[in-house]
Design goal:
Layout lengths: L16 E5 L9 E3 L2 E2 L6 E5 L13 H8 L38 H5 L18 E3 L10 E5 L1 H6 L12 H4 L12 E3 L2 E4 L2 E5 L5 E8 L5 E7 L16 H17 L5 E14 L8 E12 L5 H8 L3 H18 L13 E3 L7 E3 L4 H23 L1 E2 L21 E2 L24 H18 L5 H27 L6 H13 L4 H8 L26 H19 L5 H9 L9 H12 L4 H10 L33
Helix pairs in contact: 5-15, 5-16, 6-7, 6-9, 8-9, 8-10, 9-10, 11-13, 15-16
């Protein structure tokens, strides 16, 4: 296990604050917001409950923004100018359109970092290496292109006409080589369900290489399900069409929702069968095989650093090597930071309590990773997304949603919802726990950097504090916008979520319909709930009264804002999606695809590319789940695929 970092408590002179002490295991809950809490951990952190910052904190985004502004070479690093959570498609508008052979490949990861000297794919422990070179080996039989993303092609400067090439399915199933590719599988470890699992690695994902586009943006291409690697352990390294459709669609749907995520270029059906025991009940069956081409600026995870820190003093230097590589290519604004008082923070009393982020790029990096992670989790909570497997090997250092397994969006609002059958006993990764888990995972990441002597205790604890402050600020801002309020109202939002949980109200449809409420304080009481009647189903008089009282308070807030009903509706609809990738929609597309009809996958991709638009004629994709959607394998899944 990784060596611990002793707790360091911060003090706040501001308003109500919650203190989170980090330990290696779960402790008693401390409430820190509606339906989630930050549990006890090894580190200490203070963050404000009312949106204000503690003495040692800065306002929303100020640290990350200040770090970039202080860079001496900021203009030289165009690839760092992209926010993966925004509509980055516009960056490639008007760029040249290249053939696959013309893509500019640059293999920085394998060229600059030490790799496995062995070239076989026999499962084994790989030491003092960041990757193992391995070629795709999945068998194919007349592979077919199931779906593709034109917007991802544009990121790569790839002409969308290339999808029509007869050899495209062969190249992106790994059966034929991509020009310039140097394929490899990454070595990493991780905590799984809170326990250190040792070496994990890319057991079925093989990176083809890195493409640098005309904007100098670096994009890594990775085939998931392409065959065995040294990290496959006892698995076959393959993937089935079922899970591959889910990953492909959700990658693109999350991007369209404005949530940082890995992307997906293509989905190819291999034409071969793969045996899977979907329910772990001893009844495996053959399913169609498939391969997704995932795209991200990097697939580095917290576990990419953890694995080396876990292997003793002789491997600790590798943490620094990988950190230097990561900062060079993905956080270049941290390389040369000019001195600034705005980046120096007093975390207590005395000169030794000052954290100066300009004097240690690794501390600045840790803070930025913490803030990106906090912002990501806040966005998940805002749209009701539950990842399902938040192990540290599934946490991106770029703050991206990564590794779509048994994910799920909330239907009926249930804070304890988990889409992962493996998670059922303790619900560690349920919806309400995600902010806790994000913080716990950041603690493990900070522990790793501390063990490698890249950051000290004060800096580690400051990163923890920034996670708490950033999460609460972002979450409160998101919920304020979702309700169309002029400012955050803790009591009103808490009461709303309690009501939603009691009556199991559909999370997405409720917020979409909420924009139809008019700011009319004199409205008749028996008409107040009419705009919400489609989601307030089967409620008795007591619950109807509770909702009526809430709507009255809500209208009071709206009427005081001075914003017109039409303006508020437009604003609310821009942050409350009409369409989300519900599990039953995925399953309908899967059933059709397994029968040879890929049309529903493509239609669903198109609908999910505009989640905030009304899209007349597509209303069926916004319907509540049918009864069959609650059967095993649809509403909940295992990690197996």
């Amino acid at each position: 296990m990784l060596p611990p970092i002793s707790a360091l408590r911060f003090h706040s002179s501001n308003s109500l604050a919650t203190v989170c002490c980090f330990r290696s295991s779960f402790g008693p809950k401390i409430r820190s917001g509606p339906f989630f809490s930050f549990r006890n951990r090894r580190f200490s952190a203070v963050f404000s409950m009312d949106g204000s910052s503690s003495a040692a904190s800065a306002s929303v985004d100020s640290i990350s923004v200040a770090l970039k502004n202080q860079s001496l070479n900021n203009k030289k690093h165009a690839q760092d100018g992209i926010d993966n959570g925004k509509d980055i498609d516009n960056y490639s508008q008007g760029s040249v359109k290249k053939k696959l052979e013309e893509l500019m490949c640059d293999q920085s990861f394998v060229n600059e970092l030490p790799g496995d000297p062995r070239t076989d794919n026999i499962p084994r422990e790989v030491r003092r290496s960041f990757y193992s070179r391995v070629s795709p080996s999945a068998e194919v039989d007349n592979p077919q292109l199931v779906a593709w993303s034109d917007s991802v092609a544009m990121l790569l400067d790839l002409d969308p006409a290339e999808f029509e090439r007869p050899d495209f399915p062969l190249i992106f199933s790994g059966a034929s080589p991509l020009f310039g590719a140097v394929p490899y599988a990454q070595c990493y470890g991780g905590h799984q369900f809170g326990m250190w699992a040792g070496q994990l690695g890319d057991g079925r994902a093989i990176t083809l290489g890195e493409v640098v586009n005309s904007k100098s943006q670096r994009w890594e291409l990775q085939l998931k399900g392409a065959g065995r690697t040294p990290y496959s352990r006892f698995a076959d390294g393959l993937a089935v069409l079922r899970s591959s459709i889910r990953e492909f669609l959700c990658s693109e749907a999350m991007h369209s929702l404005g949530i940082p995520t890995t992307r997906a270029l293509s989905l190819v059906a291999t034409g071969k069968s793969v045996s899977r025991d979907m329910f772990y009940d001893g009844n495996p069956k053959d399913e169609p095989g498939a391969i997704v081409c995932r795209v991200a600026q990097s697939f580095l995870r917290f576990g990419s650093y953890q694995i080396h820190a876990s292997r003793g003093k002789e491997a600790l230097s590798l943490v620094r090597v990988l950190a230097d590589y990561t900062i060079k290519y993905h956080f270049p604004h941290l390389e040369n930071i000019s001195r600034s008082d705005t980046l120096s923070f007093n975390t207590g009393e005395g000169d030794d309590s000052v954290v100066d982020l300009t004097s240690n790029k690794y501390a600045a990096w840790a803070v930025e990773v913490a803030e990106r992670t906090a912002s990501l989790v806040a966005k998940w909570q805002g749209v009701g997304f539950t990842h399902g497997v938040l192990n540290t090997d599934n946490m991106s250092v770029l703050g991206l949603t990564i590794d779509y397994g048994p994910f799920g969006f909330l239907d009926a609002f249930d804070p304890k919802f988990t889409p992962n059958t493996t998670d059922l006993p303790g619900r560690r990764y349920c919806f309400a726990n995600q902010p806790d888990i994000g913080l716990w995972n950041i603690a493990q990441f900070a522990t790793t950097l501390s063990a490698a002597e890249l950051i000290n205790e004060k800096e580690a604890n400051f990163a923890m504090e920034r996670y708490g402050t950033k999460f609460m600020d972002d979450y409160q801002a998101i919920m304020t916008k979702k309700l169309g309020l002029p400012k955050y109202n803790k009591q009103l939002i808490n009461e709303l979520l309690k009501n939603m949980a009691v009556d199991k109200v559909d999370y997405t449809n409720f917020f979409r319909l909420l924009s139809n409420i008019k700011a009319e304080p004199t409205a008749k009481e028996d008409e107040l709930l009419i705009p919400l009647k489609a989601v307030l189903l089967d409620i008795g008089k007591e619950r109807k009264d509770a909702w009526t009282n809430w709507v009255k308070l809500y209208i009071q807030q709206l009427s005081a804002s001075g914003v017109t009903d039409d303006e508020r509706k437009a604003s609310m609809n821009s942050v409350n999606p009409k369409y989300i990738l519900r599990n039953y929609l995925c399953q309908s597309a899967i059933d059709a695809a397994e029968a040879g009809d890929f049309g529903e996958v493509r239609r669903l991709l198109k609908v999910m590319s505009r989640p905030y638009d009304d899209q007349p004629g597509m209303e069926k994709y916004a319907r509540l789940p049918p009864a069959w959607a609650y059967r095993p394998g649809v509403c909940m899944l295992s990690c197996s695929s």
